[in-house]
Automatic annotation (TrEMBL):
This is Lactonase family protein. GO terms for molecular function: 6-phosphogluconolactonase activity. Keywords: Carbohydrate metabolism, Glucose metabolism, Signal. It comes from Ramlibacter henchirensis. GO terms for biological process: glucose metabolic process. Belongs to the cycloisomerase 2 family. Transmembrane segments: none annotated. InterPro entries: Cycloisomerase_2, Lactonase_7-beta_prop, WD40/YVTN_repeat-like_dom_sf. It holds the Pfam family Lactonase. The keyword Signal applies. The lineage of its organism: Bacteria, Pseudomonadati, Pseudomonadota, Betaproteobacteria, Burkholderiales.
Length: 373
């Protein structure tokens, strides 16, 4: 944070005629004047902020790193080694650490983030449950939550503030008959939501220690695949396996989601992303027209989604992320590429930018973050 200095008005300066000497305005007699004010130290320069995109590549077991340029293009950087089955990636709120869930090694790779290059420096992996699939970070940066799909569990971990290392706190069993497909955290950090394969969403209260209280469960769409929360914290959205998209109002006191309101119905939907400014929602689908991305406006009062606008996708989209500015959407594709879409600031409609950027083999999760040097 830049320090703001209070600069006092200086006394007027009088020029001594013929001498070229500047004199401070006089006080009383006797030649004594007001002392010159102490010099004001200059404010420190503003930090350089760069935007980076990170893609976890399942089959090549690595992370593709890109710098996001002002025009939305991706400049490839170095590649970081991950574990087998690198399925998803999460960035710490401080942008100092990164984490990759490795589905075929049952662990989480941990990294520190270089603020200049965006490069990831490996740390000590964290052993997780069977088929580690996703990791989500608490808004405070103190805790992480890791899904182990085949165990029907997820783990609660603490995060070391100096190294970013993970340490297990507790293992939570998802209710009988369903496994965790996705996890989302309330913007206040007070609640955690789990999308379950048995057509329900569980809501847990998050304690100060990171531990979770007993869950409440609400009905959802069919086998919800992905969760997204509006930046206002008022609404939770799901992309469901039957192609529907549903909205749940979040109670302002309990933070529990209400019953689903179905906003759209496609042949298939599996990825949803929300504009960080809360204006638009984006859903990746497969329908009779092929692969596409639908853009919706979001009513700020009700959370209702407006009429969708479709943009063709060059291939099957696996995951999406929106830049912090809200100007661009990036999607990982089955073909091993990343597509870039520009967002219309009025309607949310996406325009596919020319060309795709190469990623690793079978790219999956993608995360985008601003990093201050």
């Amino acid at each position: 944070m830049q320090r703001r200095s209070l600069i006092r008005s200086l006394p007027p300066l009088a020029l001594l005629a013929g001498s070229g000497v500047l004199l401070a305005g006089c006080g009383g007699g006797g030649g004594g004047g007001s002392p010159a004010p102490a010099p004001v130290p200059p404010s420190p320069p503003a930090p350089t902020v760069r935007t980076f995109a990170y893609v976890a590549n399942y089959e090549s077991a690595d992370v593709s790193i890109y710098q996001v340029e002002a025009d939305g293009t991706l400049s490839p950087g170095e590649t970081a080694v991950a574990g087998a089955g690198a399925a998803s990636i999460a960035i710490h709120p401080s942008a100092r650490f990164a984490y990759v869930a490795n589905s075929e090694e049952d662990n989480v790779s941990t990294y520190t983030v270089d603020a200049v290059s965006g490069m990831l420096k490996p740390g000590t992996p964290f052993a997780a449950g069977h088929r580690t699939s996703k990791i989500r970070i608490h808004p405070s940066g103190r805790f992480a939550y890791v899904i182990s799909a085949d165990d029907n569990t997820f783990q609660v971990c603490s995060i070391a503030s100096d190294t970013g290392a993970l340490e297990g706190i507790e293992t939570v069993l998802v209710g009988a008959g369903g496994r965790a497909n996705d996890i989302a955290l309330d913007v206040s950090g007070r609640a955690l939501y789990v999308a379950r394969s048995d057509n329900r969403i569980s809501c847990y209260e998050v304690e100060d220690t990171g531990n979770l209280g007993a869950p409440t469960t609400v009905n959802a769409g069919f086998a919800p695949q992905a969760l997204a929360i509006a930046p206002s914290g008022h609404f939770l959205y799901t992309a469901n396996a039957d192609g529907t998209v549903s909205r749940h109002a979040i109670d302002a006191v309990t933070r529990e989601p209400g019953p689903p309101v179905f906003e759209a119905d496609f042949d298939s939907s599996w990825s949803i992303a929300i504009d960080p400014l809360g204006r638009f929602a984006f859903v990746a689908t497969l329908d009779l027209e092929g692969y596409g991305v639908w853009a919706f406006t979001i009513d700020p009062g009700t959370g209702a989604l407006g009429s969708p606008i479709r943009t063709d996708s060059p291939d099957g989209i696996l995951s999406m992320a929106v830049t912090p500015s809200g100007r661009f959407v990036y999607a990982t594709n089955e073909a091993g590429t990343v597509s870039t879409f520009e967002v219309n600031e009025d309607t949310g409609a996406l325009a596919l930018m020319a060309g795709s950027t190469a990623a690793g083999t079978s790219p999956g999760g993608i995360s985008i973050v601003n990093v201050a040097e």
